[in-house]
Amino acid sequence: MTLKKHKKQKRAENDEGMMTVSGHLKELRNRIAVVVIVFVIAVVVFITIAPRLIMFFTEMGNRFGYQFVVIAPQELLMQQFRLAAVGALIVSSPVILYEMYSFARPGLTDSESSALKIALLLGVLFFCVGLLFAYFVTIPFMLNFLISLNDDKILLSSITSAISVASYLDFVLLMFIIFGVMFEMPLVSVVLSRFGLLTPNMLNKARPIAIILIFVVGAIVTPPDVVSQIMVAFPMILLYLLSTLLSKIFYKKRKEKQAEAEEAADQEGSSGAEE
Asked: Cβ distance 161 to 66 under 8 Å?
């Protein structure tokens, strides 16, 4: 009887485990479905306003004297679909992050859950700040500077400056992505420092190499002129220094909490030994 009961109990535990796995898979499927539905709806909405978005971005270039052309029959249509996909991804990213957080939340402690929730909210906020910085500061400055390089009477007498819509949107979207991701640097340093994966000492030692890499990235992603490279590299360096400062603050707090926990454990151990 004891052996039969043990077998039944083991079979019930296995069934419960299978139910748990299938429940996780079902939850994952439902969350992916929510993300896909939100993304598709956002794509449909952005397709309807894509022509206005193209006019919105090209008008910014028109203010600096740029003239735009299309060099392929399908170019304008493809750019509308492209803007719709990028815009839908940006708009649906909070939903994607929320679904990822909700799926991982049962396996997190209360402190980890709160920290991750704050990190996700700040991540969206910092990304939007990066987009605004690119739109109001970096892109206008670059457009004005680059067109000023073409202000040559000899060249203008025989060459008409016209830029394809696809090339112009490539430039604009690239700047948005670079600065949106770049402004996440302080948040990433805070999260990694909070979990002990990054220390201020690491960032200080890597600073010379990081500055060189920043200028290399600026040279790759920007037009081949020094001013554009500096416009990308300088904010990245400031953000790196800010990341180092924030890492120092949060890593120090982590060390203090660890010291308090070890002290409490030692006191409990000593009190237990006395008893």
From this structure: yes
